Every structure is written in C-alpha cells, then in structure tokens.
Amino acid sequence: MGILGSDPYAALLGTPLGKRMVDSLGLPKPATLRRYAVDAPLLDGAALLGWLDDDHPIADRIRTIFDVEGIEVGDPFDTLPAAAVIVDLSGIAEPGDLERFRAVVAPSLKRLKSSGRVLVIGRPESSATTPAQAAARRALVGATKSVAKEMRAGGTANLLLVAEGADDQIEAAVRFLLSGRSAYVSGQVIEVSGGSAPVERTEWTQPLAGKVAVVTGAARGIGAAIAEVLARDGATIVAVDVPAAGEALARVANQLRGTALQADVTAPDAGERIVDHAHLRHGGLDIVVHNAGITRDKLLANTDEARWASVLGVNLESILRMNDAILGPRGLRDGGRMVLVSSIAGIAGNRGQTNYGASKAGVIGLTTFLGRDAQLRSRGITVNAVAPGFIETEMTGAVPFATREIGRRLNSLQQGGLPVDVAETIAWLSQDANAGVSGQVVRVCGQSLIGA
Amino acid sequence: MSTSSPRPVAVLGGNRVPFARSGGAYAKATNADLLTTTIDGLVARFGLAGERVGEVVAGAVLKHARDWNLARECVLGTSLDPTTPAYDLQQACGTGLEAAILVANKIALGQIDSGIAGGTDTASDAPMAFSDDLRGVLMRLNRAKTPMDRAKIIASIRPGHLTPSVPQNVEPRTGMSMGEHMAITAKEWGITREAQDELAVASHRNLAAAYDRGFFDDLVTPYLGLSRDGNLRPDTTVEKLASLAPVFGKGEGATMTAGNSTPLTDGASAVLLSTAEWAADHRITPLAWFVDGQAAAVDYVNGGDGLLTAPIFAVPAMLARQGLTLADFDFYEIHEAFASTVLVTLAAWEDEAFCRDRLGLPGALGSIDRSKLNVNGSSLAAGHPFAATGGRIVASLAKMLHEKGSGRGLISICAAGGQGVVAILEAA
Q1: Residue A237 and which of A112, B349, B365, B400 are 20 to 30 A apart at CA?
Q2: What is the DSSP string of B27-90?
Q3: Pairing between strand B408-415 and A156-162?
Q4: Would you report the helix, strand and coil content of chain A in percent, each value rounded to 5?
C-alpha cells in the first residue's frame, strides 16, 4: 500500500542493517499489524479464556463464538502460544477480586503471538451497588490501559463494559475487538448497554448486506476508505462530497458501484438532498457517517472570524442541520446507525487547532447526547463517534517530518494508523448486531499518549 | 412487422465537465480523456457502474484520425459494462443534440431501453496533418520497392513540405470564418452592438447565478481543478463589453467582438435517456420527455441565407408537426454561437415578410418572452466546445423543466455547413 511506503522508518526496519541499528539503539519497533480480511479467521490461534468464579455467563457466550468460528479455547495456565486472552470479570465485587485479572492475564502475555489481544470484560461503574464494587470495577480501567501499554508486537488490550441485562448484545463488540478490524484500537473502554432483541443470525462476512449507507467527505482520505469498507461489508454507498471534489468522488462511487451526490454539507438543503437521494435512488437510508471535515489551522491569537466560522460550520453545525432531515420521519430507518467522525484533537486539544478542537469536541457532545436520546433508542437508532489519532493520510503526509515522526510514534503501537483502521471501526459501529453500543466515542489511535 | 407505437423517451439527467477556454485547464487533455471522464461522472451520478446501457452515441468535431472509434474506446475506459455498444456521429455543432435525437429515436422504436448521448471537443488538442504534398511523398515511399527508389523519394522532401496542415474555423466552400459569415447576417438584420452586448452580459449573469444557487451541482463534475466554466465572467458589464474592438465584419458597421462571440473552448457533455420503465427499474426520476427533434440546412453558398440561420427554418417545421406555436414554451434555449445569432433568429421569427416569403407561414411566427430565454446562461458565458453544447443544453433544460414541474422547452442549435438542429422537451 502506498501509504505504508510513506513511513520511511518502517521501511528501514524491514532491512537487516536497519533492524540491527534499531535494536542496538533501543529505538521503537513498530510491528506490522494484523488487519481484517474477509477470508481471515477471527483469531489466528487459540484463545485463552478465564473468569472469576463458577457463574460466568459472558465467558460462556464468548466460548460459543469460538465454537462457531472453530477457534480452540486453551487453558490460561497452559504454556502453548495463543492469539488472545479473554478474562470475564463481570462478577467482581471488591478489589480483592482483581487478583483474578493478574492471575489470568499475567502468564498469558508472554504466550501471545504478534497482534495478540487482551480483552477484559467488566460491568459499568455507574451501576455498582457498593463502594467496593465501584472501586473494583473502575480498577479494571486502569489495569487494562496499563496492560495495553505493556503489549508488544502489535498487541492490543481493551475493556468491554457490559451493562446488566445486556449480556446478549456483546457478540459484535467481542468479534470486533478480537479481529483485525480493531488493529489500531487499544486501551479503549467500550460500553454495551440496552439494545434490542439480539439479531437472530448475522452473516459476519457481509454484516451490512442490503444496507444503504451515506458517507460525507467520501472523495478522498479517510472518507474514501470508509466508503470502501462499508461497501466491502455489503452496503450500497451514497458518496457525498462538495461539488469541487466531484472528479475524485465519481471515481470512488464507480469503483464501489454506488452513487455520487455532489453536495456541500453546509448548504441549508443538504440534509434534505441526502435523504431524498437515498430514498429515491436506493429506497431508504440505514447508515449515515458524518465524516466531512476541514482544518483551518492558526494559533488562536491569529484566528480570524472566517477561519473560526468555516471550521465550526463544516465540522459541527452542518451535522446539526443535516440531522433535522436525517433523524426526521423520512430519514434514517428504525434500527439505523449514525457514526460521527471526531478527533483526538477534540479530546486533548491541539495547539493551533482551537477551532478544530472545538468542533471535534462538539461532535463528542452531540454524540453523547443523541446516544442517550430515549426516542432514538426506542427506534433502535444508535449514534456513536470515532476519534482518530495519527492516521497516515495525504493531510498528515504534508506535516513536517519531525512533527510527523513524533505524532506517529507517540502511541502504544509505535506507528500511525491507516484510514482503513478508522473505517473498520465505523463499519463495526454500523452493524445491526451492534444495537447495544450507543453514545460511545471510540478512539482509533493506537492508544496515543495524547489525551489519554 | 411490429406495429407498436413509439414509446415516450425520458431525459434522466446529464453530466458535463466545466468548459475551459482553449489552452487553459484542459490544455493537455484529449477528447478521449474529456469524454471518458464525463461519462464516468454520469455513471457515478446515476449508479450505473458495471451496467450495460443500450447504446452510447457521441462525437467530436475536431477529431484525430486515431479517434476513429472514439465513443466505443471511451466506453471501454469507463465504469460501464464493456459490452455496451457505441458509435460515433458528427454534425458539426449539432453533434450533441443529434446524438440525443438518435438515442431517443431508438428508444422510441423499442430498439434500446436506455442510452447515453454525448459529445466532446478540444481546440487545445486539435489534430494537425502533414501537408498534402508531404503525404503524397510518404505514400510513394510506402509503395517504393527498392532501397534506391526509397532514397530518391526521401531526397525529394523539401522544407516547405514540413509545414503542418492545421484545421481552420472556416467554411471550406467560402473560405470565410463563421464569425465573418455571422457578421454579414447580423448586418443584414440590423442587429445592434448594444443588443448583442446586453445579451452577452445576461448570459454571464444568468450562468453565474445558476452556479451560485447550486443548479449545476448535479449537472457538472469538476475536472483537472476546474469547477466552473473557465469563460464565465460574472462581473462583466455592458460598459466593459462596449470597450472591446470588433473582431468580425469590417469598418463602421462592425458589431461583433470577442465579448459577444463564443471563444474556442474545451469540454464534453453526456445525457442519459431511457424509457419510463427503465427509469423506474433503476429508481431514477425522469426530468423531462424528449418530444421531438428536427434538422434543417440552408444554401448559404449560392442562396441568400446566412450560414447560421438554419434553425430559423427547422423550428417552424417541428412546431407544425407538433401542432404548437412559438408561444407554447416556458423556456427557450437558443445556442449563443454569437449573440447576433440569437438576435437574428428572434428577429426573423418576428418578421412578417420573412416568415411569409421564406418560411411559408401566413404571418410572423411570433416573438418570445425574453425572460424565458437562456435563463441559466448559454454559450457566451459557458463557452462552446462544439459537440458538447447539445448535451449541455438538453440536461440543463430537462432540469429546469423538472424544477418548474410543468411546461415545455425549445432547443435551437446552429451548426457549420449551414445546418441547424432543434428539439422540444416537455416536463416529466
């Protein structure tokens, strides 16, 4: 892939001399990450499964997934190599129970193959019934994030919090966090709650089959990758971008056998046009990805009204306006999915990006609000956001070399992510089977040190 | 033999690249590049990737010998199913509209259910040929049998042979340029400089306003960094145009300038037509019906008619066939080859004697409501890549009719060789 070639450091590592140099200097050694392929197994090896005590309903559910996928389930205390370790700690009641986390995960770490997975299952702190339980539940967050930083060779560690009563909603999230789809997602805490009756049967290689998906900003970069991955997963794509990007937009639409809709998201009728197009041309609307965004970087001291307004207008206000139509009666179908693209700059802030940081933090506020909206939940509509960290795109390719190197290495995976990593996370959030995840912000940042 | 009656033909939409002034943004693009990109933009707009349409018909006026199968070669370069048949067609500036008429006719007859009509032209990549003298030498060289013969023939080449033969914008039978012809006709009809400049300013203002309100968002796909027509001058005024020196016609009465004549332009356009059923199957809403088309020609060589006056004759013939009058239209799209072309056309239709003597009508064909003329701009502002103008107009007019929700539109396009192609669309 051309984008990988833009990381000269990774290329150097590929040479014998480069590898010796890096070893002797103790420099970071980014691994080639295991990424999703339609025909790839969920895990390329055995899974180790541990739990707290006799009652472990979530572990049992995960075991069923492994049975279906033909993945061997090993004993955590065995010594054979493994691809993942999963520990179900949903039942912990007090800090003393955390020993189980150590006892299962610690010996497993040395047995994990490259791009290994640590998946910790817990319950949300908010529903704890005793102070000791709340403390223990929260402790898992610190433990998982710390393990994520200890992972080597492209491994990730994430914590899945399963609300009481949502045990039957976890399959899509578990599959995502174990598969190559989550290659650049690490140190994240994702909550599964509520949701509707579990989907009877999901075709996991075509989870979006029959869906109509709108992607804004689809002409290039991350937007084009989102469109491509949603199409690969079975969706029919409506690729939206500003008229000026029409040439590239047409290429994306034709390659994916979708349709191109030239529209400026800030136009007052943009939402109506998108809804009309999806209905008239494709018979409905199931998935909307609000990806269109711009940067107009300047220190705040030098930011004029136009730079401020254009970034807020495109990145945030346009979404609010379009949502009037998209979440209206003719918009997203019941059971629809909306995913917004935020940014690590919206979590941590970024020097010279006050306008951008404000807009992307606003996106998070909007996501959180809509995610808990009772009416949307009753319609089965979920709203989530992804917050990309350093992603190798044309835009980051234009960043000066030294700054780019720092951005690239300052994360637990010691490398930049690819547009496809953002796209895979969005595709997962768009699945029917993911009905229990809403209002979440999933960072796709390789556990960046920024904003952690 | 089948006796089924003709089927209605729908215009579903179109696509074009922004038109560029010759030697500008598309200086390095070929006709094949322009047409392929334009068809691909249409395919993307309507989600036709991998589909076979009934036929693609397109042409170019300035055409390289290597482009002898231009339309089909372009189809093979697009996202359309490679089993989509295609053929080339050429009728000077009427090419694009004639292509639409042919596609519409085949659809009406039940021979195809869908089709794409297009056209492309670039004056930046115009073909040049060896001089006839050098061609003669080279043909002889090809036939020569011995090395000695070949050496003799090569030695006979003279520097003068190497001057290339460049296609010229002149009528082969008169040696006069189109502008010079038009200047004569304009003078005959007493068309004033002021009227021409006013029409040109209206064209620029209308086109700019149409871009500003997003009218072209689903009609134009940007190309090579150009997102609006390169010739568009939104801030031009009658005063500015009045300062330009005439370039066609001679002496005192010369009125035609670079400002009220179209420049050489590069660009391409394509239109999607189909039956109502095909449109419904593809969930595409028809914009307009392609009602009728007509071509005419005048004897500008020996007769007294102006080179660009054929549409004046074609329109009444078509109106009579349809049982319509000139007043029965909500939009008039009269191609602005020159501002004076439009004004002469209107003047002729208003002239009782001309209509009686030359058109065989009982009186004047009539006058039109000027507020319905070229309401979103025309060739003076957009430019005029010869074969692409028909597609530009058909797609824009179809959208205008759809926006209005009712009514009829008239298209009139003049062409080299004393020809004219006209058509009627009706809101779907």
Answers
A1: B400
A2: TT--HHHHHHHHHHHHHHHHT-TTPPPSEEEEE-SS--GGGTTHHHHHHHHSSS-TT--EEE--
A3: unpaired
A4: 45, 15, 40
Closest chain B residue to A270, measured at CA:
B214
**For B152-160, which contacts have Cβ atoms below 8 Å and span 24 or more sequence positions?**
B160/B131, B160/B133
Q: What pLDDT shows up at residue A448?
A: 85
Checking if the pLDDT of A451 tops 80, the result is: no
Tokens of B110: 């039940």
Interface test with A, best of B36, B227, B228, B284 (most A CBs within 10 A): B227
% chain A with pLDDT above 90 = 70
pLDDT tens, residue by residue, A350-383? 888 899 999 999 999 999 999 999 999 999 999 9
Each domain of chain A, given as residue ranges in start order, spans 47-192, 212-444
A250, A259, A262 ranked by CB distance to B40: nearest: A250
Would you call A237 an interface residue with chain B, using a CB distance cutoff of 8 Å? Answer: no
Distances (CA, A) of B169 to B41, B179, B264: 30, 9, 10
Residues in chain B: 428
pTM of the model: 0.87
Residue A306 structure tokens? 């136009």
Residue of B33, B51, B215, B218 for testing the chain A interface, max A β-carbons within 10 Å: B218
The catalytic site residues of B sit at 93, 384, 414
- Write phi, then psi, for B292 (nearest 5 degrees): -160, 160
List, in sequence order, the alpha helices (H) in A372-416: 374-378, 394-397, 401-409
DSSP string of B219-269, one letter each residue: TB--BTTB-S-TT--TT--HHHHHTSPEEES-STT--EESSSBPPPEEEEE
**CATH class for the domain made up of A212-444:** alpha beta
User: How many other C-beta atoms are found inside a 10 Å radius of the C-beta of residue A147?
Assistant: 24
Considering the domain delimited by A47-192, tell me its CATH architecture.
3-Layer(aba) Sandwich (3.40)
Contact A444, A387 (CB under 8 A): yes
DSSP, residue by residue, B149-188: HHHHHHHT--GGGGS-B---SB-TTT--BHHHHHHHHHHH
- The yes-or-no verdict on residue B172 having pLDDT over 60 is yes
| Burial label, A334 (beta-carbon count in 10 A; 0-12, 13-18, 19+) | exposed
Domains A47-192 and A212-444 share a fold: yes
